[in-house]
Every structure is written in C-alpha cells, then in structure tokens.
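dumping the sequnces here before i forget
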Amino acid sequence: MVMSQKKYWQIFKISLEEYFVYRLNFVMWRVRSFVSLLTVYFLWEFASSKTLSIFTYSRSQILTYVVGTHILRSLVMGVRSAGIAGEIASGDLSNYLLKPVSYLKFWFTKDLADKVSNLFFVIFEIVLLVKLFGTPLFWQKDWVYLGLFLVSVPVATVLFYYLSLVLSFIGFWIPENPWPPRFLFNVVTEILSGGIFPLDILPAVFFGVFRFFPTSFLLFGPLNIYLGRLSLGETILNLGAAVVWLMFFYVLANRVWLRGLRVYAAEGR
Amino acid sequence: MISLKKYLKVWGLMTRNAFETALMNRKAAVILIAGKTIRFGFFLVFLILLTEKTQSLAGYSLDEVVFLFLTFNFVDMTTQLFLRGIYLFRGKIVSGSFDFILLKPLNPLFMTLFSQTDVFDLATWLPLTIFMIYFALNRLEVTIGGLLLYLFLIGNSLVLALAIHILVAAIGILTTEVDHTIMIFRDFANMGKVPIEIYAPGVRVLLTFVLPVAILTNWPAKGFLGVLTWQMILYSVILTAVLFLASLKCWRYALSQYSSASS
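..and the predicted 3d for all of it:
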C-alpha cells in the first residue's frame, strides 16, 4: 500500500518539476490568466460602483464572486487530463496500460500537481489585484458556511475531473479530432459554471434549469455557499446534489473507461 | 499588377486547400462553429443584462455597447480569418519546414500569415457582419461622415492587427516563442470588447498608449458614434503607420538572423 502510494507521490513531484522546466510557458500562462480576469472584474467593478446592489449582490459580494471564480477555476477546472483524448488517438495510451500504475489515478495525480502550482500563483495574482485596485472583499465569518464551502470545493474538483474524463474517453470512438468537443465543452462549462457571471442573474426560467446542471456546482455553487446567499437547508441540499452528480460521473467515467478499453486498438502506433 | 494577381491566385489556392481540409470532418466543423456562437451569444446576453441593470455602461447606451461589442468581434474575426497562419508558424520554425517557404518565389511573410484562411471563422464572420449592419441601420443614427470614418478606422485597425502579427512572426523566428505571444496579444485585445472607460485610469492608459487595444477594438465604433476627436484619429493613423513600418523592419531583421533547424 505504502509502495503503491509512493509512486503517485513521485508522479506528483515530477509533474510539479515539469512546470519549472518550462518556466516561460508557465509565466505566460499565468499572465494570460490574470489578463482574462481583468475584463470581467472591471465590468462588475464599474457596474457595482453605480448602485448599492446589483442583481441582489452587494459590491463586495459580487467582486468577491469574481475573485472567487478566478481562484476556484485554477483549483477546480485546471486539468491536464484533457490530454487523454490525444493519447488515445495517438496510441500512446498503450504505454500506460503496460505499466503497473492506474491510468485514472495517474492523471488525477498530474491534475493535482497542476492545481497546486496554479493555486500558489493565483493567490499572488489576487493579492496584486486587491493591492492595485483596492478590491473590497467579503469575508465569511460564519464557521458553518465556511466549513461547507471547504467541503464543496473538493467535491467540485473531483466532479469536474470525472466530467472531463468522460469527455476525454470519447476519443475511444472518435479519435480523429479530439479538440472540437473539448473546445465546446470548455465554452459551455465556463458559462454554465458561473465563470463569467453568477447564474442567478439570468431570467428565472433559465436559472431554474441551469442550477440543476452539474456545471453549476463547479464555481457558482461553492461561491454561493461562501457568500452565504443560501439558507443552511438549501446549502446542504446543494452540496448533496453536487455529491450525487459526482457519484454519477464517477460511475459513468469508470464504465466508459472499461468499454473504451474493449474497443481500443492503438491505431496511432 | 501581375504580382498582385499572382498572390491573389496563390491565396485562393491555399484557401481552397484549407477549406477542403477543414471540411473533411464536418462534425468537427459544426461543433467548433457551435462553440464560437455560444461563446459570442452568452457574452452578448451578459452585456445586455448588465447594461440594462445600470441604464448605461461608461456613458454608452445599451445599443452603443452592443455595437461596440459587434465591432470588436468583426475586427477580431476578420483578423483571425485571414491571419490564421501565425498559429502554425512555430511548428514550421522548429521543424525546419520554414526553409521550404523561403525557397519558393513568393514573399515568405505572405506565406506565413495568409496560408491558412479559417473556414470556421468565415461561417461565423458572415452572419456577424450581416447582423452588425442590420443592427447599425435599425438601432443607431447613421451619418455619412460617421460611416466613412468607421470604415476608415476599421481598415486602420486591420492594418494595425497585421503589424502586430508581423511583429509576432518576427519574434517567432528570433525566439521560437509564438504561441504564447499571439495568445497574450489576443487576451489583451479581448479587453477591448467592452468600452475602455470601464477600466481603471492606469489600465486605460496601458490599453491606449502602450498596447494599442483601444485603437484596434474600440475606436472604430467610437468614430461611428462621433465621440472621437481629430487628434485621436490622427494619433491612431500615425501609430499604425509607425508600427507597420517597424514590424516590417523587424521581420527583415529576423529573417537575416534565421538559422534553419534543418529540414
């Protein structure tokens, strides 16, 4: 058991070290991430400066939401496992199948390394943003909500991992070009997770539908918990729904993986 | 004249090849176009919701904000439609296949930038252009002066975008760092999809005088709406001309420093 965990620790360490080999790539990626935050941040900053509350969010709440999506996006949605489809298409998957390592755990470990490195730098970016522009932040003081928020984040992280896995495994059946479905997935997820705006600013008929999608539990759900915008009962229900979706995609991902292995022919090799 | 005809013919051939390659996988084409349309649509909805709530955005009415957003998308999509070749440039440098481009009796800059017209962008560019014209005619006050200034500034923006792409190509030869450079440019350019006035003063100065994002994305629509002064118009023309000439010089210098990776 200990030996088994040691190899994943090594994978984690090596993945972290890879980032510091291609330092320029990493720095440019962080610069890009910070720049893409600025448009949405200033839109909300400007809009919230004109009124006491906007879409029932106070100024500090909405800016905390924007800052929170930037942090959580690195943690929840930063995945390297998007590369799985390419490995299936090229036949490189065969190398991993021959090794004494679980392919799914291998990629989860690499994703964890990605999240840790991104989180480390995202905190600097947020401190820079707050210092430069004097962002008023909302600090949750209720320990219950804080605790539930801290539970919702790993749930969202693992949920997105399995969601992304299911998409990557489509490569078993459509190996030709894995990029278009991933692009569409990224666009839809970014919007329906509340990455650009909180979902509850949409007309009620749309929000009523989108709030039940698994994507709403990735960013919007956890941040709503942090901001204390739901009652305790609603928060627990919200968390429960996220766990149900997580279990659904966990089972689906494992089933699709096993089915995919049966049709896998390593055509690229 | 003969030279122009030759380049147009070559561009036509390369575009046809690019289209045929792209359309080999029609499902992929539909999915990519759907993704771009959804992304455009949702951001537009977001802008509309926000501007309706605040009555105006940085002094611009809802119609003006939408027109600004549409103009940004027009400039962005036109640039990507024609200059898609830059995204494949790094691969040609590191593999050495750029040598084959240099051997041909065609301008290597032309071959680098214009070799890959994107059919997916064309499929979204056409409806966007039609919608933009329809929107301007029905929701805004159109004057001959505003329209002429708008078209002139759109042309200016496209030349400015071309200059930036030439600069990126030159940097690519010198450092092989192309992908991140062009994506950083696009990320900054994306900040121009909303009125620049929403940004903090320091950011506004950066986006106007250091990185010409405001000139590229905002000023054509502002010219149409009649909020640009003649000094700003003159500044944008001079900046574009200087940047274009500088980028060509950079490109020539980069070519003189090119050492093949072996083909």
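The mean pLDDT of chain B is 90.
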